[in-house]
């Protein structure tokens, strides 16, 4: 029996239904429809792909155009250089400042070819062939990822990495990846390959806070010029972007060397280096650089000053400085700055810490006398960047202000020289409202300006300021750049540094530099010029120099201040192996029980080249925080830093005397043994004293009992005078003031000698009185309160000035006109007659006694 086929069975089933059930109806397979559908689907896919591609590309261009500033501008570190003013020597980088990122840019022309090849071989071998996205690399990466069942290779090009770095976050999504690719296409369309590579090398992160290839080269190899890099160093840098922290040669030298080997192998495989070069570069062991770029914290005080000056003088604010990549060239002397910071880090130069551990503070500034350029500065011990800089802090200057308020203006007046006489007697000024005193409570009577400055007497400068006028002192200080309070500082206390607002170390260094620079004052500055990253100058210092005081004043002040550092002066600890002048200063405490100590101590001094001001003290003074070491500490700091900073930098030179400025002649010392005897037979008073030298002459003063003031009796070149103009029954007082006839500069007033002239025919036996000596000489060197004190100013020319042959009539006396004569034994009429002496003159003035070298102190007085 024949079996039915499937077709027959199907037919039978259809022809012979069972009940109401219907079987499924199958469609025939239509190949033609399948092919047609596939073609349509493919066309639609292509259309969609093209649409997506167009959207992606357009989106990339849109993002690029909207954020073009991000690719054209960068946040870049500003570099600060030291460069000697007026010199063409190569500048030395001293610091860099940045906002978050230590970034430096470099032009692609300054990137060596091998360095470019190292990055291309490692990051994007088909960089020159693709259009921003390497689909071949993406496909290769996908295959490897599938084979290894993990992401072992990426497909991002250098252009894509730049897009991600500039425009995108680090999120890993398909959308972000697509956006990255779109921006990469746009970048490749807009920029050349070199422009893309330049932007990439300047932006990527290399670890150790280094952004960009140039910053990385400095951090890891201490090299600013990329052309100085060796092949192994280039490969080390090219190895970093994959994992900067992991492959840092500083942190992980072994892993860095291993990764470097991979980069070198890629370079060799792609024909950029030979096998021999690869092997040699792979074998090198990394050694950290010893001269890497200096970190900002090393020169924090100076860098902070530069930032402040950039804003104050040139209108460049801090945010701009931290982001625009400026190049700032300064006047800083690196040797001086390093010496200063090393010395300040040594605790042996400072007094011991207070009981609560608080350190005494200090600040120092060094200025170039000729230019006003700041050589070095420090704002405090352990100064921190953007911290409180004490170079601006105003404190009481004490005796260091005497040259500015009293001695300088007196010399400027032309009525005084370094050897003019001062009165250092205890005196109350301002109707008795102001009574200063010397540190040791000792007065010295008539002293020269030279001695008063050297020993830092207090009474003499107050007396001097009283003579010249307080306004004269205030005006002189203003010329030197120090503006005193126009209402509260109009008092004699400024002669001792008792100021309302105080002064800063920066102000003091600037002011004293005029003394060192023949009276010429420069504007103090740190910045020479500022350029952008391309070297275009955007700001420059314009010299501001002004003759503020006479060259003679500056030279005479220098002579005075040189004496301070010599034996017997208060600043001997500042003396070094080159000419130096300066002044100590200290302000006393008004705290009960510790009045002998100080609140602030200073030394301000200069060499022919540089001026420096040093201050020490506590920021807040109380019973536990005060200065115990005296101004000798600041003088020692000055010597240590200045001598080491200048060693080998400048030859030893002397202070120069300005043209047409006379050398001051030393004032004769005072006479101490004046004697007066009435000679009855000659009816005259004979005055005798020990001569002071061949170059000295003498002004002889006399005061009768009925006279208010002493009057000049005669000028004598000899140490003996006969006064025959006396009257019977009258008493007289005499004193002698030596002077230099070439300069009319007077010396100290002598002791006062008194004599009584007896009345004629008054003896009991009717005989004429026998000759009797006058009263013994009274040792009164002059204390400022003596009624015989002459009215003429020290240093001024005596008035009147009698000469042999002229007559001088003492005021208030009816006596006949005395006629001076140079004849030793003249008896022709009543006349004071100079008489020669057989005593030889020593010709040498008395030397002042040695004083305390670092104990001078000024009690800041209350305003009278």
What distinguishing features does this structure have?
five-stranded mixed β-sheet; disordered N terminus; Penicillin binding protein transpeptidase fold; 864 residues; alpha+beta; Immunoglobulin-like
Describe this structure in words.
It is a single chain. The radius of gyration is 46 Å and the shape is rod-shaped. Helix 2 (31-66) crosses helix 7 (174-190), helix 6 (158-167) crosses helix 8 and helix 11 (253-269) runs antiparallel to helix 12. It has 22 helices and 25 strands. Among the domains are: 102-281, Biosynthetic peptidoglycan transglycosylase-like (Penicillin binding protein transpeptidase fold), CATH 1.10.3810.10; 675-757, Immunoglobulin-like. It has a five-stranded mixed beta sheet. It is an alpha+beta fold. Pfam families: Transgly, Transpeptidase. GO terms for molecular function: penicillin binding; peptidoglycan glycosyltransferase activity; serine-type D-Ala-D-Ala carboxypeptidase activity.
């Amino acid at each position: 029996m024949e079996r039915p086929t499937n077709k027959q069975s199907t037919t039978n089933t259809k022809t012979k239904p069972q009940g109401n059930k219907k079987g499924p109806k199958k469609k025939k397979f239509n190949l033609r429809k399948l092919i047609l559908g596939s073609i349509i689907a493919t066309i639609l896919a292509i259309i969609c792909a093209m649409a997506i591609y167009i959207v992606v590309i357009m989106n990339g261009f849109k993002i690029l155009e909207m954020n073009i500033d991000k690719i054209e501008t960068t946040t870049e570190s500003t570099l600060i250089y030291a460069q000697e003013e007026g010199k063409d020597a190569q500048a030395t980088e001293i610091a860099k400042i940045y906002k978050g990122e230590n970034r430096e840019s470099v032009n692609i022309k300054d990137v060596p070819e091998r360095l470019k090849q190292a990055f291309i071989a490692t990051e994007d071998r088909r960089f020159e062939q693709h259009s921003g996205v390497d689909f071949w690399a993406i496909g290769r990466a996908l295959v490897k990822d599938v084979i290894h069942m993990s992401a072992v290779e990426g497909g991002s090009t250098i252009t894509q990495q730049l897009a991600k770095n500039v425009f995108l976050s680090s999120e890993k999504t398909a959308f972000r990846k697509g956006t990255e690719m779109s921006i990469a296409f746009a970048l490749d369309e807009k920029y050349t390959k070199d422009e893309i590579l330049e932007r990439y090398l300047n932006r990527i992160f290399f670890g150790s806070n280094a952004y960009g290839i140039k910053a990385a080269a400095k951090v890891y190899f201490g090299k600013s010029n990329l052309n100085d890099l060796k092949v192994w160093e280039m490969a080390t840098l090219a190895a970093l972007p994959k994992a900067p922290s992991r492959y840092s040669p500083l942190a992980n030298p072994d892993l860095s060397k291993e990764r470097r080997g991979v980069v070198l192998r890629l370079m060799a495989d792609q024909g950029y280096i030979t096998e021999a070069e690869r092997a040699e570069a792979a074998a090198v062991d990394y050694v950290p650089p010893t001269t890497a770029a200096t970190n900002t914290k090393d020169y924090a005080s100076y860098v902070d000053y530069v930032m402040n000056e950039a804003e104050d003088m040139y209108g460049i604010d801090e945010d701009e400085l931290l982001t625009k990549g400026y190049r700032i060239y300064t006047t800083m002397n690196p040797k001086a700055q390093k010496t200063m910071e090393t010395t300040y880090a040594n605790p042996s130069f400072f007094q011991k810490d207070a009981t609560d551990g608080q350190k005494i503070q200090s600040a120092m500034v060094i200025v170039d006398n000729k230019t006003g350029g700041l050589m070095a500065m420090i704002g405090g011990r352990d100064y921190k960047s953007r911290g409180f800089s004490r170079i601006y802090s105003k404190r009481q200057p004490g005796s260091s202000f005497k040259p500015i308020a009293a001695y300088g203006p007196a010399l400027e007046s032309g009525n005084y020289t370094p050897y003019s006489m001062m009165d250092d007697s205890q005196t109350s000024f301002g109707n008795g409202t102001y009574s200063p005193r010397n540190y040791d409570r000792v007065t010295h009577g008539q002293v020269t300006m030279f001695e008063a400055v050297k020993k830092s007497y207090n009474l003499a400068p107050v007396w001097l300021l009283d003579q010249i006028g307080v306004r004269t002192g205030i005006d002189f200080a203003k010329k030197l750049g120090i503006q005193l309070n126009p209402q509260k500082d109009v008092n004699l206390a400024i002669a001792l540094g008792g100021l309302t607002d105080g002064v800063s170390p920066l102000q003091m260094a600037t002011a004293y530099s005029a003394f060192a620079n023949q009276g010429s004052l420069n504007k103090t500055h740190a910045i020479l010029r500022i350029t952008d990253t391309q070297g275009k100058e955007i700001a420059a210092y314009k010299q501001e120099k002004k003759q503020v005081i006479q060259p003679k004043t500056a030279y005479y002040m220098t002579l005075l201040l040189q004496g301070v550092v010599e034996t017997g002066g208060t600043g001997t600890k500042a003396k070094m192996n080159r000419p130096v002048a300066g002044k100590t200063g200290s302000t006393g405490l008004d705290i009960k029980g510790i009045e002998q100590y100080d609140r602030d101590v200073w030394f301000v001094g200069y060499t022919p080249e540089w001026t420096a001001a040093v201050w020490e003290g506590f920021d807040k003074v109380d019973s536990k925080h005060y200065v115990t070491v005296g101004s000798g500490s600041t003088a020692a700091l000055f010597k240590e830093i200045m001598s080491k900073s200048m060693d080998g930098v400048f030859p030893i030179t002397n202070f120069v005397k300005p043209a047409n400025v006379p050398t001051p002649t030393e004032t004769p010392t005072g006479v101490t043994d004046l004697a007066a005897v009435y000679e009855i037979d000659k009816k005259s008073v004979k005055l005798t004293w020990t001569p002071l030298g061949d170059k000295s002459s003498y002004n002889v003063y006399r005061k009768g009992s009925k006279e208010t003031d002493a009057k000049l009796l005669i000028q004598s070149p000899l140490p003996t005078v006969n006064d025959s103009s006396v009257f019977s029954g009258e008493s007289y007082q005499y004193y002698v003031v030596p002077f230099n006839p070439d300069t009319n500069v007077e010396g100290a007033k002598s002791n006062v000698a008194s004599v009584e002239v007896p009345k004629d025919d008054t003896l009991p036996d009717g005989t004429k009185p026998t000759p009797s000596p006058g009263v013994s000489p009274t040792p009164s060197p002059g204390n400022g309160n003596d009624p015989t004190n002459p009215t003429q100013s020290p240093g001024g020319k005596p008035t009147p000035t009698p000469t042999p042959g002229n007559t001088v009539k003492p005021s208030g006396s009816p006596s006949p006109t005395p006629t001076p004569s140079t004849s030793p034994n003249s008896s022709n009429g009543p006349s004071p007659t100079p008489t020669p002496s057989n005593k030889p003159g020593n010709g040498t003035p008395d030397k002042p006694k040695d004083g305390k070298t670092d104990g001078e102190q000024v009690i800041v007085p209350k305003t009278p």
